[in-house]
Predict the 3D structure of the following.
Amino acid sequence: MSAGSQAEAAVSTERRASGMTFTLEIWRQRNADDPGRMVAYEATRVSPDMSFLEMLDLLNEELMRKGEEPFAFDSDCREGICGMCGLVINGVAHGPGTGTTTCQLYMRLFKNGSRIRVEPWRARAFPVVRDLVVDRSAFDRIIQAGGYTSVNTGSAPDANATLISQARAEEAMDSAACIGCGACVASCKNASAMLFVAAKVKHLGVLPQGQPERRQRGVTMLETMQEEGFGNCTNEYECEAVCPKEISTSNIAFLNREYIRNLVSLSSLRPLVTSE
Amino acid sequence: MATLNSRVPGGPLAQKWERHQFELKLVNPANKRHHSVIVVGTGLAGASAAATLAELGYNVLSFCLQDSPRRAHSIAAQGGINAAKNYQNDGDSVFRLFYDTIKGGDYRSREANVHRLAEISSNIIDQCVAQGVPFAREYGGTLTNRSFGGAQVSRTFYARGQTGQQLLLGAYSALMRQVAAGRVQLFPRSEMLEPVIVDGHMRGIVTRNLCSGEMQSWAADAVVLATGGYGNVFFLSTNAKASNVTATWRAHRRGAFFANPCFTQIHPTCIPVSGDFQSKLTLMSESLRNDGRVWVPTTAGDGRTPDQIPEAERDYYLERRYPGFGNLVPRDVASRAAKAVCDDGLGVGSAGRSVYLDFVEAIKRDGLDVIRQKYGNLFQMYEEITNEDPYKTPMRIYPAVHYTMGGLWVDYDLMSNLPGLFVLGEANFSDHGANRLGASALMQGLADGYFVIPYTLGGYLAGTRLGEVTTEHPAFAEAEAAASERIDSLLAVRGKRTVDDFHRELGLLLWDHCGMARNASGLTQALERVRQIREEFWQNVTVLGTPGEFNQVLERAGRVADFMEFAETMTRDALERDESCGGHFREEHQTGEGEARRDDDNFAHVAAWEFTGVGQDPVLHKEPLVFENVSLSQRSYK
Ligand SMILES: Cc1cc2nc3c(=O)[nH]c(=O)nc-3n(C[C@H](O)[C@H](O)[C@H](O)COP(=O)(O)OP(=O)(O)OC[C@H]3O[C@@H](n4cnc5c(N)ncnc54)[C@H](O)[C@@H]3O)c2cc1C
Ligand code: SF4
Ligand code: FES
């Protein structure tokens, strides 16, 4: 399951000392207007215990010492929770690990001497800012379209006033675990954000707190998804395979049911985007 | 000379906040939308503040560094959030949470603030549940609690190992709702570089748009900083890479006092450093200490694998030294104890700088499934990083920089000495004294944002006559020029060493001399050395590219330049505080058993520093701490 157990168990001390070597082909693009291109670099003295991003740090440090401009990439927590990092590595969003983000990949997963292609998320709704960095603000706008419960601060009842079964809380948590990284979009041939939207709709949809606005939530969020330029879901299931939080496509089935049911019952009510 | 007025309301401790809320003036509801408020930071403190102020009707401008407000560093918190709900009927109360926090902070925090925090704590849980935060639950459907980091009652609420994430997503969703309502304008990928003061009041900020490099001015009636802690001054810490001191330091340079900068928390259970390439350290949640037992071999240089070392040749040193609390002693105590055994040569791992955290007994007692259910994601994370399976072999852990108790000085209203500048969350100094208890930072951030600032900021606006100020005011042009000039100077150095190279050097120096143990001679040396590193930085750093574009090296260079200045004040504070307390351990002041020895006669105060110029001695202001409701004692966890 984890990246660690897939790796070769023992890395010889010899290899640790001399380090591994890789040829990296990295996407360089100065800004949104630049067409961009792949550029090859050699990464040497890489330790198998380095994370993928630490290897990129090392390469950037070397470039700067030579007076060359480093390439840009996003990261922040470097422990798989903030959703800031995200690279397409050898054609796979977040690379070869299962259930891991780019920042949690370790070089012991890669074969010494191999070529590694590193590209940004590619989707119309995620324009490139620079090199490997993209703009994912479309996700925030999808959440603005209903990914919340409308309770003002101070108006909440006692936390134990409503009992929620453990199973239901766990089910909500499974969906709430989405980190908003966008790998699902990057891996989808339609660049659909269905898994992201579905995870939020289900998280709130299975909890009692989410019921009052349940009817419009799925509809308004999906409509915003389309307006933002994401594609539609054609059940390819690539998203689930790359999702670092292993969000299941059963969330999408939940969303589809919500959408169909509510579109019918809402048609007489819309527009119903409440913000109060 | 400026004086510090903490503005703690009168009356009995338990009635201060209620009375103060009544006494604070109210802003007429119809007038709220005429007031603009800038909130910098979208972590728990900033997002909750921005959302709540907008709900009340204020016109809010919200800024953050990341591409989305949801990615603030708060997202990484694992363990949980405290609240005095006493759902477990195990003897908890507002007073007990207050008392534990004051004692845990080694009597270096303000009674009134801490009591308010404990009072508010219950409302936070209610609010978060209403937002849909999926806290862990019992089979019967009620909320679950666990005991955490030095508490003898179970008052910690959690959502798997992702409590910070779920709480932040709750606050973020409330914020997004206000964006949709048109009451919050969002500015992600924006870095505040200068505060703007007009006629003695905080009236705006200057930011750099991180995508275009453009300098922009923003005017408002008040500014709220919720920009997090400065743990990354050490380079290696458990903080996210972008965590920094820039916003608070820039405010400090323009007059805001910096309080207790030497109070930093070293967390006992982190994955040890494994190489000089390492970019950050990873925390293993403290909840692991509920079931894991900490030990080292009894003989130095024991080369056997842990399973080969018999019980009799193991030293469960926390259980031995602190039979009352055992493996659950507060963080500062656990960290120092780990350092002590490693200093004695008993540490394990190739560099001898780690100790075992062993689950064998817990697995035997509760079964593999129970342990997997409780800690599965943590065990997996550990294995991914270290390539070792903690179900089979004990984890190896070592302390790492984690949290900073120090921060901008604030009064009871969370306002700094600069009128109109409010500081929330980890960025202020207010509630944790010299050591923070586990699961209390999330509580404080949300208390500040949801329940304190909406009242106190209103009181300020209603009670202050503020003239009309726009970004046309010359103070904005001056601040923009200062920010641009600094960026130009960084690009003009054209030296040979990289920004990270300097940052690592600074971090190592501080870790050695201003880390878990400090002494006068080390601190004096460090002060000297910090100045030298800073000088070399400004002569030999390489920052490539241009100011008018997305430029990550330039961003980092600016933050490291601020750390270089801040490090001096932090070290000076550690030198000046000639006592041991909480996480600040001065080797000169310890009991016969190696515990921290406070000096209440001379140091029961907040040290608030006033900036006088780079490389110039800052001026120290003292806010005396008065304890009327607890008696000061030597902390004992035996
Ligand atoms: C790994 C880890 C685990 C933790 N676990 C727990 C736990 O279990 N329980 C607990 O109580 N506490 C925990 N803590 C501590 C707690 O998470 C933090 O103290 C708390 O989340 C800080 O919240 P904040 O809102 O003050 O700041 P942050 O969440 O750090 O947010 C800072 C915000 O300010 C912005 N910002 C910073 N500088 C600028 C600038 N110059 N311009 C514009 N924006 C800026 C950032 O973009 C960000 O939005 C943990 C900490 C770590 C590191
Ligand atoms: S659903 Fe998975 S892949 Fe998509 S944004 Fe969420 S965590 Fe990332
Ligand atoms: S950097 Fe935060 S998830 Fe990778």
